[in-house]
Design brief:
331 residues; alpha/beta; Rossmann fold; six-stranded parallel β-sheet; 13 helices
Length: 331
């Protein structure tokens, strides 16, 4: 039996609801469900002391930060790291780093060179990890994510006093999300915009002079309806009520939110940049994210576009492919 330690820090540091925490929260139970079929025992690990005591063959760090010490430089066990994207390195003119962050990036890069496998969510991210961090191709493992099973079509009554027709966006307001372009495109389409996410609600409290946030300075914050964070149960309802979901990003490492929208039967208008065409395939209407008029037209067109059901991404498949990565390190 191969003993694998799964580091659960991302489940306990306040990020469990979305992003990397969501990844660990959904993946871990599925790993446990199928692990014995692969001759693997999954152990939850919270700190480095437990790693020493458990005598593990493999340790999986499901969270890697480019600019903070999330991966120890020296390790005794074989190591698997999940790295979702390197977007800050794609847009270095926006995500400018100080001396400390640059030093941390150097140390994190050194640590990453010595791991046994790097799991990432898309071929697009895989290519960029190789390009910007010089990770050998044989160490890079492509394992797609999936929408949670709770996201599905359902009949929903009115909720949150939402408009009868509206464009939905779920997520952060980072530069790569292209929020200013999205707002302008919705105005051109003469459709209401509903934004879901903690950052969307808190824009007024942010330091918009920060280089990574200055793109938000010119936003018309009165125009979109900003709901802030909502529960997964409410989010399912909101997806089902939306006329169209729009992902306007300049780049994405995977694109989980449009996948959730499609799982709910909601039409999707999507940027043709980053991993999005790879993940969404023929299920979305695409546009150039730098062309607001094209985005506006895609939003209108997608409302008449019946999206095919996507069932080729499941957490069972994600878990089994992750277990295959573990198995390959201890044949």
């Amino acid at each position: 039996m191969i003993k694998v330690g799964f580091v659960t820090k991302s489940l306990t540091d306040g990020n469990a609801q979305r992003g990397v925490g969501f990844y660990a929260k959904r993946l871990l139970p599925k790993l446990k469900e199928y692990s014995h079929e692969y001759g693997i025992e999954i152990c939850e690990i919270e700190n480095s002391l437990e790693i020493e005591n458990c005598k593990l063959e493999i340790v999986h760090y499901p969270y890697f930060d480019l600019f903070y010490h999330t991966l120890p430089l020296f390790r005794k066990s074989k190591t698997v790291v999940t790295l979702h994207d390197v977007i800050p390195l794609e847009f270095q003119e926006v995500y400018k780093q100080g001396l400390k962050a640059k030093l941390n990036l150097f140390l994190q890069g050194l640590a990453l060179q010595t791991v046994d496998a790097v799991i990432t969510d898309s071929f697009y991210s895989l290519k960029n990890i190789r390009k910007y961090l010089n990770i050998p191709h044989e160490k890079l493992k492509l394992v797609y994510l999936a929408a949670d099973e709770i996201f599905k079509p359902k009949k929903v009554t009115k909720k949150y006093n939402l408009p009868k027709e509206f464009v939905l966006y779920v997520g952060d307001v980072n530069y790569n999300k292209n929020i200013p372009g999205l707002i302008e495109a919705c105005k051109l389409a003469k459709l209401s915009l509903v934004m879901v996410g903690r950052q969307a609600k808190e824009i007024e409290t942010m330091d918009l002079d920060h280089p990574e946030l200055c793109h938000l300075k010119s936003l018309d914050l009165v125009y979109p309806l900003r709901l802030g964070f909502v529960s997964d149960e409410d989010l399912v309802d909101i997806y089902n009520l939306a006329s169209v979901y729009c992902q306007a990003s300049f780049s994405e490492g995977f694109g989980l939110n449009p996948l959730e929208a499609l799982a709910c039967g909601t039409p999707v208008a999507s940027s043709n940049h980053g991993s999005l065409p790879e993940i969404l395939g023929d299920s979305a209407v695409y546009f150039d994210p730098y062309d607001v008029k094209a985005m506006s037209q895609a939003i209108i067109t997608s409302m008449k576009h019946k999206s095919p059901t996507m069932n080729n991404f499941t957490w069972d498949k994600t878990a089994k492919e992750t277990l295959t990565v573990y198995k390959s390190l201890c044949p």
